Amino acid sequence: MKKYLFSAMAALVLLASKLGCSGDSHAFVPTPSVKPTSVEISPNSSLGPIELKVGETQKLSAKVLPENAENKQVTWESWSDAVTVNKDGLLTAVRKGDAIITATAVDGGAWSLVRVNVLVEVEKVRIIINPNDPYPIKIPDIHGYNPIVLKAEVLPTDASDKRLIWTSSNTNVAVVLTDQATDQVLVMGIPNITEGRATITATSASNGNAFGTCEVIVLPGPPPPATDIALSPSTLEMAVGNVEKIFVIPSPINAAIDANYLTCEIVLPNEDDLPPVKRTVTSAGIIIEALRLGSAFILATYEPPGARPIYSGCTVTVTDHIEYVAGVEIVGGVSVAKLWKNGSAMELSDRTRNGDAKSVSIATVSGLTVAYVAGDETGSDNVSTAKVWVNSNANTITLGDGKDSKANSVFADGSDFYVAGYQSDGARKVPVVWKNGPSNPTRLTVDDNGDAEANCIVHKEGYDYVVGHGKDSRGIQVPIYWKGGVPMYLTIGGRVGSANSVFVAEDDSVWIAGWVNNDDGVPMAALWKNGVRENILPTMRSSVANSVYVTMTKADDGINWAPPNIHVAGYESNGQVPTARIWEGTTTLATGYLDGGGTESRAYSVFVDSQNVYVAGFKNNSSFAPEARVWKNDREMPPIAGASIAKAIAVK
Is pTM, for the whole model, over 0.70? Predict the structure, then answer.
């Protein structure tokens, strides 16, 4: 029995030996695991450390490579107590300082890092005032000779960015002499014959909500003597009948000019020429009245007692009219709001922000010709601020209250000006009208709570005539006409549209230009009279009416009015691109082809004087870049500027 048992066991051992040493291709061979070779952290710090404020958190994610790595687990670690990180890669900023955060693959040890910088935000700025000194701070009789020094404290004391921006609320009273990043500045009073007040503000450069203020009172005192003068502008173009002011700018700027010692001479190209202008020296400047066509040089001499004479001059050219064109030009990649005066450009907006000029209105104020331009400036945060520029960028009026706002139209009536646009209430665009500045704008009512805008305004005999667009009770964007703040919806049947321009004729009829979608949803130029649509536009293609101007004459009986002469500017599609158009006539309007097509062009504004019809817009050049254009009596004038658009025109 033992013999048989031994033989069986031997056989099993032999069989096992053969199986274990066999060349069988189906024998089990284990596959080696793929190990991580690198780790990528997102977001990374390749462009600089990740910045967090104390208390803030940031989620990091780690990508383990290659994609087929078997174990993709990582461990997170912070190498500074300024920042903590949990197992899921969530950072928490604990204190001011720097930290390195690593993510390490559990299998194999591959790793990556990011750098983190923890900042302490400025919470409070306080201008330091001696409690023993009188407040408000008085600047007595210094006027540039002994400016006061202000210093500010930034809290908390370990704030990361202690830079301050110093400003004055009234630079006609006091100015801050430096905008450098410092904790103290010099404040200088501007000489005046009366006492003035200004608020000096120190604002954190990194947190606009942290600021400190103090009030200063500038007492009247004697200004320094003028060592030089300059006439501004140094060149002036005027139309016959216009009156302009030339300012006498002293050096130093806070010096006073005594008009009793200022003389002005008109120098003519030829001695036998009649003077084209009349000049009057006043304490406010040199008043120039254009009498006839021609040119002259205005030579000003300032010679107070005991001082040497100082001189400056201005070249004046008198033409038969002045074209004021408002628009925008791309300069160095920035949109710059501009006013062109007979083609001579004046920059209105700050090149640190994108500007846009959309409307211009000319008025006579105290005998002087004044140009009002409405538009806006937009910062890097894409928030727009409504602006009005009066004659130049030296007199800029900000209309918005810090929220998104735009000024689309301005109408000047003597010393008063009216601006239509919108102002955000935080939830929507609200159509508004500003009068003479930012205070208490009038909100225009609409049925729906959606966005709405006021596009154009005319003021006549105590009434504001305003047009724009907004939502009706069904939430559809429709053209709206407001008279005295009361809305009238210009479309029925739920057609989408907008009212772009309004004109009040001599017979008090109200003409409105815009567009309304047809049954196919295609925009069509539209014209309304007293709120009723006039079917006198000949266009049958996609089109928009942007501006309307109506002139009136008396009938043969000298009592009644003859049919109006209607001028509508806009554009229509020629099947490929929009093309500038003007529609003109009385009872039926004919199409004027400002551009024959083939390249994009648009007309935005029309103005009519006694003899001529002016249209402003743009036309693309051969490089497909827009160029601001004026068409006079349907004839295309040379481009005003490159990479530009003319949006409004007025002629005086």
Answer: no
